[in-house]
Amino acid sequence: MKPIFHLSLAALFAAPAVVSAQPLSPPATTSPGQAADTTGAPADTPAAPQPGKDASEAVAAGSAEPAQPVGPSQQPATKEEPSMPPQEKAPESGFFFGGVGRAVAAMDGEGDAPRDADIVLRGSRLDESTFVQLDLERQDHWQSTGATTRVAVRLVVDAPTLHYNNARPWNINMSLRNAFVEERDLGLKGLSVWIGSRLYRGDNSELLDFWPLDWLNTLGGGVRYDLPSKRTYFAVHAGVNRPLTPYYQQAVERPPALNQPGTANVNVLDRQRLISSFKASHTVPVGEKGGVKGVLYGELHTTPAGRRETAEAGVFEDLPRDSGYVIGAQVSPFTGVDNGHLHLFLRYAGDLAAYGEFGSPFQPAPDGTASGAHELMVTLSGNYETGPLGLMASGYVRSFRNASDSFDFSDLDEGIFVVRPHVYLRDWGGIAVEGSYQAQRRGRVPPPADPAAPGASPGASHHNASVVRFGLVPFLNAAGKGDFKRPQFRFIWLVSRRDDGAKALYPRDDVFSQRTWEHFIGLNVEWNIKASPAF
Predict the structure, then answer these.
(1) What is the 8-class DSSP label of residue 404?
(2) How far apart are the C-alpha atoms of 473 and 521, rounded to whole Å?
(3) pLDDT (tens digit, 9 = 90+) per residue, 377-406?
């Protein structure tokens, strides 16, 4: 494998890349209503400028002169007709490096290691941990066909780092989030096709660190077509996954073939989930720079039937075919000035899809499927800036029910609202404050096995919990004013207050089950460098 890998790298870097030695290109500007990039990034800032957002944070890691790649059997063309109209500039060719990340050094009020104190699925991002995302891309514009191709690879490294825990031998929490090739304008202007492993998503809820409508990790491919107006596009995609859970896979030991000694592992269950998505987006211009973007979205989830060995060897149970669906919509008015925008997302997931793309149905319906499970989520997110003042806000309400008939602990309703105003005292720095309220209501709590045990909670028809949080965040922005400008240096002091219901969500002897007040004190820096400038 090593020689092949070395040869691949050699071939990759031997490709002709005419990269300019001049300083970095100036920040690109996204036109009103331009669709967000769907390559994905772990949410510190949008992976690409979204409608109404300032694109000045999306800086290419290098500028390059357009070049026509020349293959081993080709000769450089002496003259070729331009593949694009004179008024359009050909996309740049070359290697590009980028990524997003966050580095955090913090402690709780006792000086111990800090923890995320949210009780809802998606909470405040102020107490999130360190991560690093590295993007390496090769982009080529082919003058002979007028098409542009991009090879994108993304590696993500999560905490802890070596400098924190000294884990050896050089342990690292790494994942491959992107490994795909995309081509655009091949045969038809506005048509793009991609194949590979991709973090595939749309607009996000900035303060809550997630993508409320479309957020898929997929191994597959997709097609997208942008109308000539650049205000409307349609996209479809299909991909597979197979999480490492007994719902998808079971390996058992069996005697090897032909009476060989020892044992062999046999996958008696080895099924995948097929996920297809469909998306239509249209932007209506309003005024000179503003507009309203509307999105319709859907998913189909299916998994085949299978069989699994029970606890009794040689006895099998049948697992039925299962399926699910997602329907959703988005309305996003934006000003086109100073990042002003408002996102409203509505998403409903039914049956298998209610458990998420990697989820395994628990507490199924009587027929063994996820039929009847559902999740409804409504999310609001926005940003407004004027002069030295700015305001970001996000919130959602979510209701989830599993497939079983009973109303149990996993059935819940929850919600959160976060608001973060800020003021710039200088062009390069200022102070932000963040306040949030989050609550959840769970289904029936089972009675304790031993009512006399310390900390045992009595059984109840439901359980309520809530947390109030307040944060003070002085910050420095070398790139100037703007909520989405990076890099940004921060000092964070975050105070949380749990009620008795929130403390009861943690096991006995967990400090969160004992403390009403929680402090998070630390230093934080975030950065975002977009890689390929043309996609």
Answers:
(1) S
(2) 10
(3) 999 999 999 999 999 999 999 999 999 888
